[in-house]
Amino acid sequence: MNATLLAASSKQALWFASRGTGVVCLILLTISVLLGIVTTSRIETRNWPRFIIEGVHRNVSLLVTVFLTLHVATTVIDGFAPITFLDAVVPFGSPYRRFWVGLGAVATDLLLALIISSLLRARIGYRVWRTIHWAAYACWPIALIHGIETGSDRHERWMLAIDAVSVTLVVVATAWRFAARDRLRFDPLVAAPARQPVGRAR
Fold first, then answer.
1. pTM check: above 0.85
2. Which are the contacts of 78, defined by CB distance < 8 A and separation ≥ 6?
3. Three-class SS state of 189
């Protein structure tokens, strides 16, 4: 009896862990994308220099990887969805919701490509790294769609709210980024700040 209850409790814990880590992944990935947009806009303040923003962006991306690993592990071990660890990295091979789970594998592969290319940035060159980095931004919408179609909480109000807020923040940040880029391109006073005359030292 006790063994049965323990097994049931373990299965329930894995189930909650799988759901929770998936939600946390989406939230952290959204934060990572927002920080990436801020970083590419070259915005900085006295309290938040650019290198600090880049450092936070990098650490959040690593946290995404940690929770993604936990999400995959708990989902596979739980066994509710008949998927394997291979299905988490090889797209569209899962017998369970093949296309939507496959999108999750695509998002995982893009995130892994981003992390590996960042570690090898000095060897592969800035241009290759930047190309992979931009391609990795597709990880966010793909992961979002994966969660909407496969998440067991996708119809819950709180999950719908998280999805809506995530989409709104990324759309607004992206629009602001393009507006800022156009302003820098067409406003010579912003694009090239006036140089201050250098006077004689007193």
1. no
2. 11, 14, 15, 17, 18
3. helix
Residue bearing tokens 């329930």: 12
Q: How many helices (H) and strands (E) does the chain have?
A: 8, 0
> For the segment 26-73, what is each residue's pLDDT rounded down to a tens digit?
999 999 999 888 877 665 556 566 677 778 888 898 899 999 999 999
Any idea where the domains of the chain sit in the sequence?
12-191
- Residue 201: the pLDDT is 43
Element (H, E) at 29: helix 2-40
CA dihedral 187, 189, 192, 194 (to 10 degrees): 170
Tokens encoding 133: 């980095």
Helices 139-150 and 157-186: angle between axes, nearest 10 degrees: 160
Distances (CA, A) of 99 to 86, 93, 146: 15, 8, 9
Tokens found for residue 194: 């006036």
Query: 105 and 86 in contact (C-beta within 8 Å)?
Result: no
Half-sphere exposure of residue 2, counting CA atoms within 13 Å on the CB side? 0
**In 3-state terms, what secondary structure has residue 196?**
coil
State how far the Cα of 103 lies from the Cα of 139, in Å rounded to an integer: 9
Per-residue confidence (pLDDT) for residue 191, from 0 to 100? 42
Distances (CA, A) of 105 to 67, 78, 150, 180: 15, 18, 13, 34
Say if residues 50 and 42 touch (Cβ distance below 8 Å). Answer: yes
> What is the pLDDT averaged over residues 90-114?
92
